[in-house]
Queue: 4 jobs
Job 1
Amino acid sequence: MRYPTALSPGPAPLYHKLEQELRTRILSGEFKSGEVLPTEQRICSQYGVSRITVRRALETLIAEGLITRKRGVGTFYTPPQAAGIRSITLSGSLDEFLATRGVVEKDVLASCEAVAPEHVVRGLRLQSGGTVMRFDLLTVLDGLPIACSELYLPPAIGRKIDPADIQDRRLPIIRAIEQKLGFRVARAEQTLEADIARPIAAAQLGLEPMTPVLKTTRVYFDTAGTPIEMIISLMHPERYRYSMDFVARPRAV
């Protein structure tokens, strides 16, 4: 970690110097994608500046799209998006999201400990070449398959989880893991994008190979900001719908 140093002397305003210092720390790789940054109070203490100065510096970085602020959670590093991709970030209640998951059957088709693919290494912040616990799942509702998924857990967590824990119909998987291991999930990041059902997934979902599907990737984090579960799902295009309700904040009078 690169420890903070005193802001460089010069005629530029303090908030501009702080903005440059924070940008350097972020772009140097000190913070990983989705990792919470120090609090405003912590930055004040580190650099000996006022909260107003900190807020002005952070607002500039937010406007640049370099960081994202989530109310009640914190400020996070947001890596640049690939060219040509339109990305929209929304935030909401994790508890409300999990409460809508409903009662579904989850069949564990296979499980093993294996070398983590690179996209899982990035998602769970593992060492490249390290292992991960993988569970292949089929989610069924009213006797019909609605999703096939790859669930990845860090070995320290995954080795303590049995297929029976995951198949519990009463709870979302992450809630079952919480109860089994006694920790609390603080937040999750989810991405939705288009994909195709390759032969194995197509057979599991009862689709023709190469049928367009919706792919969801979700990573859960504990209260320390450590990723503890990553699940990648291909959703049946005729049996899954994702709805969002947008509510405007009250305007100040």
Job 2
Amino acid sequence: MKNSRAIAATIINDVCYAKKSLTDVFNKRLSNNSDAAFIKSLCFGSLRFYFQLQDVLGQLLNKPLKTKDKDIECLIIVGLYQLLHTDTPPYAAINETVNGAKQLKKTWAQSLINKILRLANQKVSYNLESVESQYAHPLWLVNKIKAAWPEHWKSILAANNKQPPLYLRINKTLITKDDYVALLSKENIQYQIIENLPFALEIKDPISVEKLPGFSAGFFSVQDITGQKVIEYLDLEKDQSVLDACCAPGSKTTHILESQPNIMALFGIDISDKRLEKVKANIHRLNLSVKNVNIKASDITELHNWWDEKCFDRILIDAPCSASGVIRRHPDIKILREESDIASLAKIQLEIL
């Protein structure tokens, strides 16, 4: 499949109707795709405004599409996103989205997609009365955020719908921040220094991470600045034994090893064997020593499976949660998370603590 819109539609279908994680689907479908960055931007945007775009689609369709044609529905969502939320020329957005139906082997849908997108392009405004449409969030989550932050809920929802900034954590074991900044300047890549975080930088213009200097050499990791602050609170010393519970995908694990490369012992535990492969890959890319590192797949609450009954000096718990705080970076959370998940996640958190 070569049509980027069709690939994006397939991915969105996997998320919305097969309930798969966006990250997992990206890893499966885009591993060797040269157009991956563009496809990801289509998926992120379409899912970011999914509830709104669904409402618009409902107003333009005479009747809902059949269950077997949800891929076509997702393809139209991709087209609507381009028309309503990007600077893509309408002719390109419409034509390429229409052509996507051929890639999905549903040529019958081409005329329908063409009609819907041309109507969308002509219409000045839509009747977006529902809370879900207005704020592009599921109603239950809007109500939760509104109850928790009655004075700021609108600005929080608006922030969730923005493209997230790209923050880097410079790997101090391989390069200084000054030297890395020099590499960025040489490539004419705009950046900003983050105050009070000695190894943090913000990249100002959107760019694929792999195209940044030194990615494969391990010069940096991508990590939000809130995450970068966490390791400071551990107050690490090299003669300590540290437990990183629920450690995948490894941003904090690697940060620990960068902060104290000769740490006496680091135990990284996660319930997912597959996600632990990402931890190991990150450690390898960053050229960090695994001499005193023990990574194991286990339920952290089943102590008999992994604990040798020796006490730890520090324990870091990044417990499973609603992930509502990282919706900007993971918009599929709006679709995948259910209100009923909150109580079960809270129970898991308490068990881990």
Job 3
Amino acid sequence: MQHVEVSQYVGAPPEAVWARYTDHRSWTEWAGIGTVTLDRQGMPAPNGVGCVRVISAGGTRTFEEILSYEPPHRMTYTLRKGAAPIRDHLGEVVFTPEGAGTRVTWRCRFESRIPGLGGLFRFGITRLFARVLRRLAAQRLA
């Protein structure tokens, strides 16, 4: 089992950071990971529990389902299908007040589908999470 954890300070209150991060379709504009659409809306609509976000990049599509949605504190999700060579992916994003801003902690666990490459995938996911959170921190949030 591989584990990833990345943390980033964002200079805005948790409610504003939560609103931007969980607006899945807005990721297309700011996250730098490709196009993000919704395959299915969740509850509360559109981004809550049961929402399936589709990340399209480099000719591949990844489907992630929101499992828990606890504004403005915590969200969990799982990888439902896609080209990623991983399985049993469970992600968690936690938003903690810190001074005048928010500490965002994004973690996940997963298994590699290819023996011996879990560490390489962990390295890539760590870099991806860090890049997305840096871009989130660069947003002008209320």
Job 4
Amino acid sequence: MSIPRSIRERWVYIDSSAYLALLDVSDANHAAALLILRWLSLNRYRLYTTNALLIECHALIMSCLGRHVAARFLQDVDASNTVIVRVRANDETRAKAIVYRYDDKDFSFNDALSFVIMERLGIQHVFTFDDDFTQYGYLILDADRLP
């Protein structure tokens, strides 16, 4: 990843797999997630996600780590400077088209919504441990390849 020239190039989408890895010390990607988050913070990147992804994250974290951790996650996101993008009706329509078009892929509806939002905002990099983003053409942050 090269050094960004503009503020907009410092926008990174964060996915549920990154949030879970950050919170779950037993997650195989926990150390990498912490390293990536620290690097993003030091280099003044701005995290973006969607309201739909937060719903998915809350359910995922609650099932893996319990309701107290899940509630704390929502509080922490609210207190952070992460930008929460509201999904629009036309985003949902475009996401469904992606799911139908790529019937050979295991893209979830939420993955497709994330792709649409990233496209709408011009975000190229994603903080995730989900290979679906690479399959769709986005650049995943890799702890071993940070400058």
